């Protein structure tokens, strides 16, 4: 091996649901806004991760040469796939690519 140190991937902060707006007037049938926001948040997260998997899992079957032409690394894709759901894998992969370009 060489004297190269292991590539340090960037640390990313997880997403969190936004606080629903405070209503001035509550009607008798006002839905639980915090619950609805949490459900919408998790639906967005699952949809985002499904989209990422649909785009990048087929790339794992390609050769390393083709992946380097695209600008990604096989280990970076596998790392992004293993991230927690609250972290956007596509943004993490882009941050990893920018960090690799700088070093």
From TrEMBL:
This is DUF1127 domain-containing protein. It comes from the Bacteria. Residues 1-23 are annotated as: Disordered. Residues 1-14 have a biased composition (Polar residues).
């Amino acid at each position: 091996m060489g004297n190269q140190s292991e590539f340090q991937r960037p640390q990313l902060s997880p997403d969190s649901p936004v606080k629903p707006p405070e209503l001035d007037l509550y009607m008798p049938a006002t839905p639980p806004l915090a619950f609805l926001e949490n459900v919408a948040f998790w639906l967005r997260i699952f949809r985002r991760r499904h989209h990422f998997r649909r785009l990048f899992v087929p790339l794992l079957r390609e050769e390393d040469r083709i992946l380097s032409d695209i600008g990604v690394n096989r280990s970076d894709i596998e790392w992004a796939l293993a991230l927690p759901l609250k972290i956007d894998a596509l943004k993490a992969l882009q941050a990893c690519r920018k960090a690799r370009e700088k070093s």
